[in-house]
Amino acid sequence: MFKACRTCGALVKRDAEVCPVCGGTSFSDDWDGIVIILDPKESYVARILGREKAYIYAIRVGGYTA
C-alpha cells in the first residue's frame, strides 16, 4: 500500500518515484508506525520528530528511527 522515504520517513504511494516532502528517491518497504502531522508549527510531536511539513510519516524506516 505505502512505501517510506529513507531520507525523511514520508509515506508515499507504491508507484511514487520522488518523495513529495524532501525530493528523495530512495524508498523502503521496511517501516513501522504512522504519525500524521497536521500543523507542524503548533505540534509538539512534529517538533520532537523534527518534521516541518504537514504530511503522513513512518515512525521507523529500515534502521532509521524518527
Please identify the top-level CATH class. Answer: Mainly Beta
- DSSP summary: helix tally: 1
What's the CATH topology name? Rubrerythrin, domain 2
Parts with pLDDT < 50 across at least 5 consecutive residues: none
Can you summarize the main beta sheet? 3 strands, antiparallel
Order of strands in the sheet with the most strands? 2-1-3
- Per the principal axes of the C-alpha atoms, what is the gross shape? globular
Tally of structural domains = 1
Tally of DSSP β-strands: 6
What does the radius of gyration come to? 11 Å
Give the integer mean of the pLDDT values. Answer: 93
Beta content: 35-45%
CATH-scheme architecture: Single Sheet
The residue fraction in helices comes out at under 10%
| Element order: H for helix, E for strand | EEEEHEE
User: Structural class of the helix and strand makeup?
Assistant: mainly beta
C-alpha termini separation: 21 Å
What do these coordinates show?
This protein has 66 residues and is mainly beta. The chain has a single domain, classed as Rubrerythrin, domain 2. The protein is 9% helix and 38% strand. It contains 1 helix and 6 strands, in the order E-E-E-E-H-E-E. The chain has a 3-stranded antiparallel β-sheet with strand order 2-1-3, with no helix packed on it. Strands 4-5-6 form a 3-stranded antiparallel β-sheet, with no helix packed on it. The protein is globular, with a radius of gyration of 11 Å. The model has no long low-confidence stretch (mean pLDDT 93).
